[in-house]
Write a structure and sequence with these properties.
It contains 3 helices and no strands. The chain has 159 residues and is mainly alpha-helical. It is rod-shaped and about 110 Å long. It starts with 7 loop residues before the first helix and ends with a helix. The C terminus is likely disordered.
């Protein structure tokens, strides 16, 4: 270190190294935050899919219950009120399925937002999967459906 510089070059080099270290720490913190957000969004999507499948089963079961209540009423074993109650349960099951479907679509969009998929294709009504257009391995015309771990791996390989 020359005396006439007064340590200026050394201090600038040292400050630059500190700035690089801080930038690397910020980058790592952001990477961890993105991974946590994507993991949470993926968990919400899988839970929404499961809830939707249970709601579908509930709709089927309530339809069978309505049919059985109507038959039993025909035999005089049930009252009209029992049939109306069964029909109300069937309507409630349909409403629950519609809400579960909406939640699954919202979870799909949340996952797309968390992964930063700018060219995400709009999910069809009733669909609970996410499709991305284009990637490191597919052209922009590709509509390949991938799972989130595959998508994250592709994003990591590209960068």
């Amino acid at each position: 270190m020359p005396l006439f510089e007064g340590g200026y070059a050394y201090s600038r080099t040292r400050q630059s190294r500190i700035n690089v270290g801080r930038a690397e720490q910020r980058t790592e913190a952001q990477r961890r935050e993105v991974i946590a957000n994507v993991s949470g969004a993926w968990s919400n999507l899988t839970a929404s899919r499961e809830i939707l499948s249970v709601a579908d089963e509930q709709v089927e079961a309530s339809a069978i219950a309505v049919e059985g209540a109507e038959r039993e009423r025909g035999y005089g074993l049930r009252s009209t009120l029992d049939v109306l109650n069964a029909e109300e349960e069937a309507r409630n099951a349909l409403i629950a399925r519609a809400r579960a479907n909406a939640d699954a679509v919202v979870a799909s969009y949340a996952l797309m937002a968390a992964t930063g998929a700018p060219h995400a294709r709009k999910p069809r009504p009733g669909a609970t999967s996410v499709a991305w257009r284009g990637s490191a391995t597919h052209g922009p015309e590709s509509d390949a459906i991938r799972t989130v771990p595959d998508y994250l791996r592709l994003r990591r390989d590209v960068s």
